[in-house]
């Protein structure tokens, strides 16, 4: 018994000594690939099917060990057909993954969720811009708050909860005059319209006598948060944006997109914008 134990220890030491850095790298790559594949599956229609496949594997294993001949034969016979069926059913998903690899878009392949969030945010911006264009053309006043890192839960509680996908049509309908939700601000959080008719705190800073309550409210909320606030003026039909306690007036669609798209560093040089009313526009 002692000799056998020593033999096992020597065998283990021998295998460990042969375990190289490349073996560790090999295991890590395989583990990473399996993990990313599972994440990718979870974000597609394949997740429900994957859970079904796991159940079938469990049933077939039980059938094999318990000697349930009929069930085992059925599972074994249909495996080849099942694999072919999976390839046909999920051909679009497989094609997209292969295209990402073929175009060198490894980041989106390894992290499909990040790509999805980017696409959703891009669509959100497009819908907001469409709504602003319509509201500006019709002279419909609007106040849209885009939450960023600082939570605005206390502001949301002052309004009516909506929790809807951001769409130009919905934003336009909210701000149409005389509708129940037109008065107050809309909060957009996590690419969704969270609440409407929200009450924003007014700034006490001097921002210009020609600017009304909407503009004062827009500046007020940005003094205590990092939100972007878009304002459409009923009188001038112009679109402005408030951020960091400053307000920038009469912006074009491209300028607004640069702001809320996160490219503010080059914005002033490109469009000649100054800091805002608090520093004397």
Relative strand content: 5-15%
Quickly name the level 1 CATH class of the largest domain: Alpha Beta
Structural class: alpha+beta
Choose one word for the global shape: elongated
Mean pLDDT: 77
Task: Provide the spatial order of strands within the biggest beta sheet.
Answer: 2-4-3-1-5-6-7
How many domains is the backbone divided into? 2
Distance linking N and C termini: 90 Å
Give unreliable regions as ranges: 5-9, 264-281
Tally of DSSP β-strands = 7
Radius of gyration: 29 Å
User: How would you name the CATH homologous superfamily of the largest domain?
Assistant: DNA integrity scanning protein, DisA, N-terminal domain
Q: Write the CATH architecture name of the largest domain.
A: 3-Layer(aba) Sandwich
Q: Helix fraction?
A: 55-70%
* Helix-strand sequence: HHHHHHHEHEHEEHEEEHH
Stated plainly, the CATH topology of the largest domain is called YojJ-like (1
Count of helices?
A: 12
Largest sheet: 7 strands, mixed
Q: What can you see in these coordinates?
A:
A hairpin with a 6-residue loop joins strand 5 (228-232) and strand 6. The chain has two domains: 2-112, no CATH class; 114-279, DNA integrity scanning protein, DisA, N-terminal domain (YojJ-like (1), CATH 3.40.1700. The protein has a seven-stranded mixed sheet with strand order 2-4-3-1-5-6-7, sandwiched between helices. By secondary structure, it is of the alpha+beta class. It has helices spanning 2-18, 21-42, 46-66, 69-89, 91-102, 106-110, 112-138, 153-156, 168-175, 213-222, 253-260, 267-271, and strands spanning 142-146, 160-165, 185-189, 192-198, 228-232, 239-243, 246-248. It is built from twelve helices and seven strands. Helix 3 (46-66) runs antiparallel to helix 4 (69-89), helix 7 (112-138) packs parallel to helix 9 and helix 7 packs antiparallel against helix 11 (253-260).
